[in-house]
């Protein structure tokens, strides 16, 4: 059923995206929230278009703050509320408090960059890489020039 | 695919793997293949409002799964619901692509405008979807899927002979079979929970917004669609069979019958399919009429998920 194949564009894993120029390129980033928060602002600086396939959202703080553990999540929630006005986007950026136990990380302007016109947040599950790009479970094939796999995604067997 | 819950726990991990293995894409379908000409002008005019309703019901159903994901009892079931959310979106996208193939969309390929009852459902999901207790939505969704799968889709396939349509619905039906299996297995899981939790969740369903939602939104939405398709020629027996299927699968489980919402919706469904029931005269028909006077602008702007429909198999 799934038409698998090898992706024929540029595929970057882990940290390989660092220090590169993506001018003129459309880029897909497949990563967890905290990884995407590090990758996307940097990539979006030069890329023509960025599609962020967020595997799971994480809590993000506006800056490195010396907060007691008890306050980190409420502050991260408030940061999300203030930084993202669209309720549907905000919902998709809100972690599931029952299952997500990762500690909040620093935003790095991720929320602001995500809302730029050339960035798109996609929360559909990605199930395959095909010659043209990324297939996600809403039935659409997303064609891109370059795919960046975050550390977790880089270890997924179905995305090799 | 088995829906029995007899011995031993259902393997949700295995189901998640199956769901991942069975993914398909709009890009797998040849949307320009011959067969579109089999949809005559007469069939096109007749099926256009039906297809528009179908697209929107799938799209709203997708949003329902997004709410279920927020309530899922385990991370695996949450992931399954996230896939189902996407798959229902895929079904809506594929049905929109069929509408485009059959010349039912405008020149720009825009999705059809939802009717007022769909707009009301969108409003309720936006405002309350994520706060409803799991039992309510987890019971409502399999009922809608049984109706969709057992009556509407069968009707469509009887009426339309385009092979591409049949290819698309082979995929959709295969997905829906898994949805229904999981839906009822989750009901079993909920039903097997402690009685006090079931009662608390059921009492939570008695909130005014839920009751009003059921009466003002769900009742006319379903009735309007019911009457529309019966008027188009769907035998009422098919509706009856679809509801019977909901009751039959539910009764196979050892614990589903402990869920009060299951009994309430089963009873309502039985009244919906029986046009002679006073339910129609006293409640459903007046609600269809009343809601037709609701101006859409009082509902405000829906959330951005309503704009996620697309008939394009490839996005660049």
TrEMBL record, chain A:
<keyword id="KW-0285">Flavoprotein</keyword>
<dbReference type="InterPro" id="IPR036188">
    <property type="entry name" value="FAD/NAD-bd_sf"/>
</dbReference>
<keyword id="KW-0521">NADP</keyword>
<dbReference type="InterPro" id="IPR050775">
    <property type="entry name" value="FAD-binding_Monooxygenases"/>
</dbReference>
<keyword id="KW-0503">Monooxygenase</keyword>
<comment type="similarity">
    <text>Belongs to the FAD-binding monooxygenase family.</text>
</comment>
<protein>
    <submittedName>
        <fullName>FAD-dependent oxidoreductase</fullName>
    </submittedName>
</protein>
<keyword id="KW-0274">FAD</keyword>
<dbReference type="GO" id="GO:0016709">
    <property type="term" value="F:oxidoreductase activity, acting on paired donors, with incorporation or reduction of molecular oxygen, NAD(P)H as one donor, and incorporation of one atom of oxygen"/>
</dbReference>
<keyword id="KW-0560">Oxidoreductase</keyword>
Automatic annotation (TrEMBL), chain B:
<dbReference type="InterPro" id="IPR009078">
    <property type="entry name" value="Ferritin-like_SF"/>
</dbReference>
<protein>
    <submittedName>
        <fullName>Ferritin-like domain-containing protein</fullName>
    </submittedName>
</protein>
